Amino acid sequence: MKLTLFILSLLLTSFLFSHTSNAAVTCGDVETKAVSCVAFVTGKQPKPTPVCCRNLKMLAASAKTVNDKRAICRCLKEGVNAFPGVKDKYLSQVPRLCGIRIPFPVSLNTNCDSLASLSFATTTVPDNLHWASSRVDK
């Protein structure tokens, strides 16, 4: 519980700067959805949970404009940077494991300002991909 509150407070603090954009997506929305993925991106779970994937698919679907995409990217990047336990090798796996096609590499070093009219798409990922295999690159 303490860890969850700590993560939420870090994310909320770092997300506040993005509320000034013209995007319809707020950092509060991003924070609420992304926190369910922290256990995977920190290496504490072998795969993203179904809740994590569902939440990220909702975020991808809500990115209607370039400003939305940039806002989501900035919120995620700032939130990730505020939590030092996030590992790039796990973060980069999230789109594939959750069935979200993103036309740029997901990384701690992603340049959110370079996002233009790129589209996000979601696909259906079989349940066995999420939970039957285990990660070996710990």
What does it look like?
The model is unreliable at 2-21 and 123-138 (pLDDT under 50). This protein has a single domain (2-131), classed as Plant lipid-transfer and hydrophobic proteins (Hydrophobic Seed Protein). A two-stranded antiparallel ribbon has the order 1-2. The longest helix is centred in the middle third of the chain and has 17 residues, at 66-82. It has 138 residues and is mainly α. 51% of the residues lie in helices and 3% in strands.
Give a nutshell description of this structure.
By secondary structure, this protein is mainly alpha-helical. The protein has helices at residues 2-15, 27-34, 38-41, 50-62, 66-82, 88-91, 94-98, 127-131; strands at residues 100-101, 121-122.
Query: In CATH terms, what is the architecture?
Result: Orthogonal Bundle
Beginning-to-end CA distance, first to last residue:
25 Å
N to C succession of SSEs: HHHHHHHEEH
The neighbouring-strand order within the major sheet is 1-2
CATH superfamily: Plant lipid-transfer and hydrophobic proteins
| Parts with pLDDT < 50 across at least 5 consecutive residues | 2-21, 123-138
Q: How many structural domains does the protein architecture include?
A: 1
State the share of residues found in helices, binned by percent.
40-55%
Number of helical segments with 4 or more residues: 8
